[in-house]
Amino acid sequence: MSTDVLVIGGGNAALCAALMAAEAGASVLLLEAAPREWRGGNSMHTRNLRCMHDAPQDVLVDAYPEEEFWQDLLKVTGGVTNERLARLTIRASSSCRDWMRKHGVRFQPPLSGALHVARTNAFFMGGGKALVNAYYRSAERLGVRIRYDAPVDRVEIEDGRFVAAWVKGERIAARACVLAAGGFESNREWLREAWGRNERGEWPADNFLIRGTRYNRGVLLKHLLDDHGADRIGDPTQAHMVAIDARAPLYDGGICTRIDCVSLGVVVNRDGERFYDEGEDFWPKRYAIWGRLVAQQPGQVAHSIIDAKAVGRFMPPVFPGVVANTLPELAVKVGLPVERFMHTLQAYNAACRVGTFDHTALDDCHTQGVVPPKTHWARPIDTAPFYAYAVRPGVTFTYLGLRTDETAAVRFQDVPSQNLFVAGEMMAGNVLGKGYTAGVGMSIGTAFGRIAGTHAARAALDEGAKEHASA
């Protein structure tokens, strides 16, 4: 079997690549490892796309210029990013929505619990599932062939050129290929290998939950890195890792398991001690650091503690919190050492310097004389009832991937392939060396999916023209 362009993967980046290649006139075959009912990878759990814009645009208010987007990204990554590729992503985010609409994606104003990103993020009507379904419908109309339950076991590469892929013993040849098969977050063995044991002798990865798909096992990524020597980017322990409800399912818990009240209270580990500034910055810019922070705590578990003053100020998770009328009672209910917990809460409450509380701004409510500090939104936790949410690290996607460039080409010993391209989670580490800010994963996947599809179609059609001329 053969095709002009083979797309390996079934989420946002893969679909963008398939659509662009088909629009360019190439024949396209898309291979999705999951069954049809679970198609879309992690994209089906998404909600929005971070967009640069210089003026108000329908659902986006005010302006979010390139430099502000870049500074936000620079801050969350700590500078571990390729500025050239990051700015390419940022600029692409300003012009993709008309194309997305053409393929059936609809946008809506953000829900009330997400108004703080109304300026920076465009929300999909119906969420990521609706986006994925719209793209699949459009792909089918354009003649893209789609196969489900089609995991790629290995690929043939000769001198940096893609030749064919193998799926359950079947060889599929193509003139060009786009790799968009996700990271390795659902591969427990690889997570264990990456994280190792900590100083307490624990295997932190054993306590990780996977926010997204169970099908992102990194088989193709490992094959490219280990067997074909593709150039790599990123730290295998770095990931979009969020503190999610400890009661969440092992896979596919999605957005509703995220605990969003962190900045409104305090977070303590199982020893009843705080370990990081809960009010460091706006939640959309900092929520993705908390999974890694919890991963470094004993037992990879923590508890987000709030009081009645916080209720109604955050997007409620799918599971209710543990409730008590006193703080000691709350500690007992969730299994925390009461004396240590009360010492922590009393020290925090005494340190609060309450000014004008405003959760939509970097307000002047802060702590003084306590470590770690709380920089904003610090108010005493003193109003019953009290609530606790147990959290564990929830891995969305990993950042170890394939090094690439502006053409989305896979590189071998720093030489770009002429017909093998990469998009989405498999290359996100070029832009995200660490950290995260809401919606930027979709920005990367959309930008590089479209770039990869365009270049793959061009490479395939050029190859086809050469074959025809020499026939």
From TrEMBL:
Residue ranges occupied by any FAD-dependent oxidoreductase 2 FAD-binding domain in the UniProt entry: 4-431
Classification via Gene3D superfamilies: FAD/NAD(P)-binding domain (3.50.50.60), Succinate dehydrogenase/fumarate reductase flavoprotein, catalytic domain (3.90.700.10)
Cofactor entry: FAD
Tagged with keyword Transmembrane: no
Pfam families: FAD_binding_2
Annotated keywords: FAD, Flavoprotein, Oxidoreductase
Record PANTHER family: FAD-DEPENDENT OXIDOREDUCTASE 2 FAD BINDING DOMAIN-CONTAINING PROTEIN, FUMARATE REDUCTASE
Descriptive protein name: FAD-dependent tricarballylate dehydrogenase TcuA
Organism whose genome encodes this protein: Ramlibacter alkalitolerans
Lineage of source species: Bacteria, Pseudomonadati, Pseudomonadota, Betaproteobacteria, Burkholderiales
Gene symbol of the encoding locus: tcuA
